[in-house]
Amino acid sequence: MTERPPLPPAPQRPPGASAPAQQPRALPATSQPLPPAIEARSLARQFATEGQVVQALRGVDLCIAQGEAVAIVGKSGAGKSTLLNLIGALDRTYDGELRVFGQELRRLPDRALSRFRNQQIGFVFQSFNLLPHLSVGDNVMLAGSFGGTLSGGELRRRAQGLLDEMGLGDRFGQRPTQLSGGERQRVAIARALLMQPPLLVCDEPTGSLDGATAAQILAILHDIRTRLGTTLVVVTHDPLVAAEMQRTVTLEAGRVVQPAVGPPDAWPAKETP
Amino acid sequence: MKPGRLVSLLAANLKQSRVRALLAMVGIVVGTAMLTFFVGLGEGLRERVLNRIFPVNQLEIEPQAVQLFGIEQRALQEPLDDARVAQVAKLPGVVRAFGKQKSAFPARLWGGRELIGYNLFTEAFFDGMPVAMLRPELEAIEDVPTKLARARTGKPTRCDVDLDCPAGALCEAGACAAIVWAERFREDAVIVLPCDKDADCSSGACRDGRCLVLGPGGQEAAQAPVRCLLGAPAKDGRSLDYENERGTLAVRCDTSPAELNASGWCADKGACPAQTYCAGDHPDTALGWCETPLPAVINPLLLEVFNSDMARSLGAAPIASVAALYGIRFHVALGDSYFSQDAAKVRQQYKQAVIVGFSRKAPELGVALPLPLVRHFNARFRGAEAARSYDAVLLETANNEAIPQVIGQAEGLGFSLSRKSRAARTFGTVVFVVSLALVLLAAVVLAVAAVQIAQTFAMLVHERRREIAILRAVGAARMDVAVLVLGEAALIGLCGGALGAGLARLAAWGVDVAARRVLHQVPLVPDGFFVFPWWAEGLAVLVALVFCVLGAMGPARRASRLDPAAVLAQT
């Protein structure tokens, strides 16, 4: 990756609190156990399609600490995306327990759940999912439309700052269709970071990119985690991407087949932030 | 969602799907245009046609008539006198009530030379109307307040004769004074009323062949009529006929006192005072009394009738406005008729009348005179009994809503609507029903447009499922998504409503222009058929907005219930 200005420090805040503007966030200390960002106990999810019931998750136990980078791997149909949607609060129909930053998502009404998603979670998708009729800047500012107390000017400044960090500062007014794949994904990351969420959920973030560009994106994600203490949950098929994470959780037929629950300080850290 | 961001997102969404939005808007534009157009047309017909011919909040009632062997007879046995009129005036919803008496004697009139170069001749019909009822309208049409204000601020101009004064003023006491024609429509005008006996006079008594002229308080007028000799040689040996500032010919009785005394016909004052003329038994004999012309009020619709077709067929130029007719005199022969040869010549009277105002309460084909004058003439030609009873009662109601109640109560007192009021009610009902039907038609078009909106938004929501899922992922609540969809529909409604209202105005203008070209010879056709009340455009936009939002409710609900996880998993 080329030289980029440093990411602004992001605050760590309790779940449900709105994002304050540009306050420094304390980096997670490595010497003491970190409170969990995600806790799943016997998490199950089933879908009824065409008269058949499909069990997508069958009692998943999972604990991810704040600031941790976790890869979720598995074959197609193993339940990776289902788990990601549950963690990302896009889906709250499940059995068992799921707490994200201590919040039982199932119990939140739609308005509160949407606010939680807006404030606590950033999404990065394989296909970028930028809105083509909005400019790059407007795409980045999208989350600011639905929550928080940031003024229009503050939103714009923050979006411009994020795009500057991504090396796309001069593309603010352009359309996403004018950008390359790597650039679009960087815009998507900027969008995910606008509200400074403590959790970044990535679904195949490098799946549509070539090797060099994928490496750039991974470097950015790594940088975000180390600098901001953001928890990273990445669904991937790519072993190289999984290898970049601190821990890998393997799903198979809706079950975790690789140990996922354990004291965070016992987990091998690839890099000390 | 923040309002500013909402507008920004809505604008971006509409721009993205502008073709579809424009297509969806077509129905709304057409429906709104129809709604505004028909509301404007209905209001226009009411205000510019109906209310012009039949004044608002006004009814004319007359004693109920029954058909007896094919002959119409009054059902009301007792005379319609002041007591009965007072009884009607006390009905709930009635503001004022006035008795009206029609002329019951033959009469003919002629005049118009000043206007078109030769005289027109016609049978004459008079309505005796209370001064208090017509005065406000006369002053409003004449714009008396403005006229008086202008006269107060201007410098007084010295004058000897009327010709020295500018238009709109006459010479009075050596100075030009603004003419207020409405003031001349008065009950104590100096009119000489011939009689043979007291019964020929509707009030007062017959003295020396003339009814005593009574003032408003019933007292004898201070100024006695002055006899004169019309056309008598003046000092220079000729009559002082001259043209006034409008180019009209004004006949003025002007002889020296000595000459008049010598003739034995005129009083010692000699000449008739200004603004009076010499009234006699016949215009040619020219012997009689100085008196003010009969103050005549005509219906402004007469001018329209004249301008629309008569003027062309008579080879005359159209008359620009009613103002050109103020002060125009015409000749009246009371007791004479162009159709009847058996009118008693001995009782005929020659008079002059002057147009002093315009009122829509005046008869369309006739002349309104102060009520006492018509009563006097009726007494003269038909006897005192004919002068006592009114023919109809004119009612002013508090508002249009009170009219049905007033009609019902009046019917209970033995009255029915006059033919004119019946026609007004019928026309009003027809206008209302037709307007309502057309507005309902517009509502149907709008309902169809709402269905079109619903289909369009259903497609848009389907196309934007992914976009909606992304919005949900970044924090949009269900309500936010619904607001976005409904907001887009509302914007289409606002724009469509505004465009429709504008289109209606444009169409109305086009219809008016076409109507002026095609119907300019048809009398009573107004300059414009449309009146757009202040609320018309607002209503149109509001209705368009409501229909659009209603149409988009279903799609908005579906959009808000999209499962973002499922949608994002599909791609």
Structure description:
The complex is a heterodimer of chains A (273) and B (571). Chain A is of the alpha/beta class and 273 residues long. Chain A contains seven helices and ten strands. In chain A, a hairpin with a 2-residue loop joins strand 4 (95-100) and strand 5. In chain A, helix 5 (181-193) packs parallel to helix 6 (211-228). In chain B, helix 12 (419-463) packs parallel to helix 15. Chain B is elongated. Chain B starts with a helix and ends with a helix. The chains are: A alpha/beta (273), B alpha+beta (571). The interface between A and B is medium-sized, with 30 and 30 residues.
Q: Roughly how many Å is the radius of gyration of chain B?
A: 34 Å
Beta-strand fraction estimate of chain B:
15-25%
The residue-averaged pLDDT of chain A reads 80
**N→C terminal distance of chain B:** 27 Å
- Largest sheet composition of chain B: 6 strands, mixed
Strand order of the largest sheet of chain B: 21-7-4-22-1-23
**What is the beta-strand fraction of chain A?**
15-25%
**Which strand order do you get reading across the main beta sheet of chain A?**
6-7-8-3-9-10
Query: What is the count of helical runs of chain A?
Result: 7
* Most extensive contact: A-B, 30 and 30 residues
Biggest sheet features of chain A: 6 strands, mixed
Please bin the fraction of helical residues of chain B: 40-55%
Unreliable stretches of chain B: 213-270
Total strands of chain B: 23
General shape of chain A: globular
Instruction: Please give the count of helices of chain B.
Output: 16
